[in-house]
Structure formats: structure tokens, C-alpha cells
Amino acid sequence: MKAVLLDMYGVIVRQTGDDFVPFVQKTFPHLSHDEIYAPWLKADVGELPSLDIWRTIGFHDNPEKAEKDYLDTIELNDGFLDFAKAAREKFKLAIISNDSSEWSSYIREKFDINKYFDVISVSGDLKIPKPDRRIYDLTVEKLGIDTADCWYVDDRKGNLIAAQNSGMSPVMFNSRNEDFNGAVVNNFKELAQLILK
Question: What pTM did the predictor assign?
């Protein structure tokens, strides 16, 4: 194996993204899940700047503050930095993340993690969300290796199946207690034990 490809939410960062709706509903309790996620999904594929998520939802006075307040709730997962430093000695590393360009950039710069990755594929930049196979193939092509030489780590079963169908070896990072018929780890220590043998 030559590379480890990691999802962002629920893997690199502790938050899975499931806290976005409750965060918004603290201010706008009448808004439904679908009303909140509609603009978010557009930003995820580069159809909307991230600040327009907040404006569409109703944060007209200060969307910048709402966005920063939300993004600053996000924390790196325990053990990620140690894993990344060790994994870089053996593998190429990449991110494949469904996220808006702006949110992804803010989080990566806040935690200074760009330096660990050879390729960063964000749906908002590429206009291709997981589980579309093209985002996996583009990432591997940029890494200059074969899909068969890649571990792919995610917390969502559908994304793992898509990666497996593209030829990668999938690993479930068990942030949301989904069943998965394959390799499952609960933290970065277990991931290291699995792939950094």
C-alpha cells in the first residue's frame, strides 16, 4: 500500500457535521432539517459561497460571525496529529471531503494540517461530491498511484462502498456506529495498528 486517503468530518475532525442543524436551530428553532441543509448542500458542490448558506438560513446581520462561531466549534480528533506524522513516513496522504471550499480551507488552516497532505480533494472545489466515483479517481490520479494501493478511511458506509468499488481498501472510522462488513476502527490508535504495521 502506498497511500492513505482520509475523510474530514467524523475522521480528521471529531464533529461529523450532524451538529450543524442543532447549531442553527438554537437561533431559528422553526427551521426544518431540510430548510437548513438545502443551502449547505449547494455550497458543498460549489454552487453557493459559504456565507450565502447563513444568509439563506436567516443570518442576515452578520453571516461572517455565524460562520466563524460554528466553525470554531470544530475540533481535531484525538490522535490525528500523531497518526499523520507517523503515516507520512510510510505513505502519501490525501483528504477527500464533502465540504464548501471556504469551510474546508478555514478548518485546515486553523489546525495547520495542509502540510501533512499530498493531495486535498474538496467537493466544493471540484464540484463533485462523494460518493461520486470521480472524486476518488481524481485524487488517486493526482497522487500518481493505483487505487489498489490505497487505504480509504471514512465514517459513512456509502462513501466506503464507493471507494471499495473504485478499487481501494476501505476502513470504517466508527464515529457514527454504522454497521460495516469490513475493517472497522474506533480511533487513530487503532487505525495506526491496522495500517502502520
Answer: 0.96
